[in-house]
């Protein structure tokens, strides 16, 4: 059983490191609006600057937020998950290893980014370890889906739900 788990984890780590490196370079930080749609999937600094500039100079981002169009919402909630998203995207391989072991530097860093207080860290690590297969259901899970799964695991735990 242990040998099978180790082989599964190693296969997952290999696949995640190959697939996630490619997807991490295609992130566009233009936000919502026409610029983000126009340059969606483009990599590098120039497309990101052009996306933000397009949104800013045409005023379409503001319109999109008030009309709930162009990928914008009017919920009034500003999402601040970009740090966790960026970290997960860049560290999927190490996170998979650390979560599978229930300890490690990247797991501690993720706990820090999610605001997990010291008293809850052991429970956080144990819960994630126990739910490894829910967080990483396949070797092709994206960092975005992995984070969604991780947050769902946290939300299902009474003590850790506040970090989801």
| Proportion of residues in helical segments | 55-70%
The portion of residues forming beta strands comes to under 5%
Given the helix and strand composition, which structural class is it?
mainly alpha
Number of helices: 10
Radius of gyration: 18 Å
Number of domains: 2
SSE map:
Elements: H1 2-24, H2 34-38, H3 45-58, H4 60-67, H5 82-90, H6 92-101, H7 105-113, H8 121-130, H9 132-135, H10 143-155
Task: Give your account of this protein's structure.
This protein has 164 residues and is mainly α. It has two domains: 2-25 and 80-163, no CATH class; 34-67, no CATH class. Helices cover 64% and strands 0% of the residues. It has ten helices and no strands. It has helices at 2-24, 34-38, 45-58, 60-67, 82-90, 92-101, 105-113, 121-130, 132-135, 143-155. The two termini are 31 Å apart. The relative contact order is 0.12.
Brief description of this entry?
The chain has helices at 2-24, 34-38, 45-58, 60-67, 82-90, 92-101, 105-113, 121-130, 132-135, 143-155. With 164 residues, it is mainly α. The longest helix has 23 residues, at 2-24.
Features:
single chain, 164 residues, mainly alpha, 2 domains, 64% helix, 0% strand
């Amino acid at each position: 059983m242990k040998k099978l788990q180790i082989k599964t984890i190693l296969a997952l780590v290999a696949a995640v490191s190959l697939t996630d490196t490619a997807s991490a370079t295609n992130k566009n930080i233009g936000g919502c609006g026409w610029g983000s749609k126009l340059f969606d999937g483009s990599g590098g600094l120039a497309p990101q600057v052009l996306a933000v500039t397009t949104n800013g100079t045409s005023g379409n981002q503001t319109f999109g937020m008030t009309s709930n169009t162009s990928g914008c919402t009017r919920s009034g909630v500003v999402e601040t998950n970009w740090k966790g998203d960026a970290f997960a995207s860049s560290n999927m391989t190490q996170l998979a290893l650390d979560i599978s072991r229930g300890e490690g530097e990247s797991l501690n860093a993720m706990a820090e980014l999610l605001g997990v207080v010291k008293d809850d860290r052991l429970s956080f690590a144990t819960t994630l370890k126990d739910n490894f297969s829910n967080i990483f259901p396949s070797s092709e899970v994206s960092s975005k889906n992995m984070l969604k799964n991780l947050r769902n695991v946290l939300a299902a735990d009474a003590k850790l739900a506040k970090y989801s």
